[in-house]
Amino acid sequence: MPPAGKLVAIVEDEETIREAVCVALRREGYRPDPYDDGLDAWTAFNIALPDLAILDIGIPRMDGLELCRRLRSRSESLPIIFVTSREEEFDRVLGLEIGADDYLCKPFSTRELMARLKVLFRRASPVADRTPAEQLVRAGELVLDPLRFSATWKVVLVSLTVTEFLLLQALAMRPGVVKTRDQLMEAAYPDRVSVSDRTIDSHIKRIRRKLQTVDPAFDRLEAVYGAGYRFLPPAE
């Protein structure tokens, strides 16, 4: 789908920021869908979801965290970006834990926001303009399909965001091998200058929780103290 066909929701109560983002979206060929509070946005999203959502955390009537939770209940694949104040470290981490794909700290440039937008759309784009391996990735009872960004554990579908899928794929492609946080950052955020260790930790925690929802005995995602994470190979 060309950029002109992409509907991007921006939920932000600061009018100057909201308008600036809308201008930038139109300039890049996207269709902006602005809201100044969470409840109005959720009412609209119940009718039709956007192609991507940009959420401020501190919006009235329904905050961005709750709106993100509800959006994730509707779709695991919808790309979501948070914008937040610098002092809200806790909220940023919580936002990633409940399903956001990325975040920006205020003040931010619309140019940087558009770059993040393009990265998320590129990750979720059809394989025609990507170069992933054609074959499934298998690690014991975990099966990953890079063409569809789908994952199954013991033949049960596990709903993952694009970022979560890329992280799990990086670990599952080499079972038993420890991946550092820097390596995982590169796998999931190849276009990012920097992502904090806590961002990776939050995503891994969420992936583990989703797999344990499917199988309470799941214990294959292992943290290696001072090194990173690994996906344990199946027991022989």
Structure, explained:
- The protein is α/β, with parallel strands linked by helices and 236 residues long.
- The protein has 8 helices and 12 strands.
- The protein has helices at 15-27, 38-47, 64-74, 89-97, 110-123, 162-172, 181-188, 197-214, and strands at residues 7-11, 31-35, 52-56, 80-85, 102-106, 137-139, 142-145, 150-153, 156-158, 179-180, 221-224, 228-231.
- A hairpin with a 3-residue loop joins strand 11 (221-224) and strand 12.
- Helix 2 (38-47) packs parallel to helix 3, helix 4 packs parallel to helix 8 and helix 6 crosses helix 7 (181-188).
- The model is unreliable at 127-133 (pLDDT under 50).
